[in-house]
Specification:
It contains 9 helices and no strands. With about 160 residues, it is mainly alpha-helical. It has 3 domains: about 45 residues; about 80 residues, no CATH class; about 30 residues. The N and C termini lie far apart (about 65 Å).
């Protein structure tokens, strides 16, 4: 390649080399920008546990994080049963694991964070109320259905 440069004017050679350096720089910056975004999300999720996330950051931030992680291509195992944005908005609540965690080769938290955010946003928590316990069972069911309707929506 240097052989070809000796026939070109120095000004043109400098322009070509600057453009080439700019392209390499741009490619590196795209990769670094993705890494910074990923590390920022992971640090955010570690700092605020999932139980406080909705109150602290809201549904829009949860949507942004799930949108980012649903495109993660880390491994085949994490692509399976990972909730996406549609699941979050439609009210999907992943089951809670009753098993001890196993050791796997992939350390990516993408599926874990997507599941935790779906649980935090969509899972209804009914507080214990002694007055409800004094009601008849059929009255309790009606009241619980009312609580689920009022309190379990996506934007409440």
């Amino acid at each position: 390649m240097n052989e070809r440069f000796k026939y070109l004017p120095d000004v043109l050679v400098n322009i070509i080399l600057e453009d080439h350096g700019g392209i390499i720089h741009r490619e590196k910056m795209v990769k670094i920008k993705k890494e910074i975004k990923r590390e920022g999300i992971i640090k955010l999720m570690k700092r605020y546990n999932s139980f406080k996330f909705k109150d602290e950051w809201g549904c829009n931030e949860a949507e942004r994080i799930i949108t980012y992680f649903q495109n993660c291509e880390c491994c085949e195992r994490h692509k399976k049963r990972k909730p996406g944005l549609f699941d979050l908005i439609s009210g999907f609540v992943p089951e809670y694991s009753t098993k001890l965690p196993k050791s796997h080769l992939c350390d990516c938290p993408c599926r874990y964070y997507c599941r935790e955010l779906c649980r935090e946003i969509n899972d209804v928590e009914v507080e214990y109320d002694p007055a409800i316990q004094e009601l008849e069972p059929w009255e309790q069911e009606e009241l619980l259905e009312f609580y689920e309707y009022e309190g379990g929506g996506w934007y409440n």
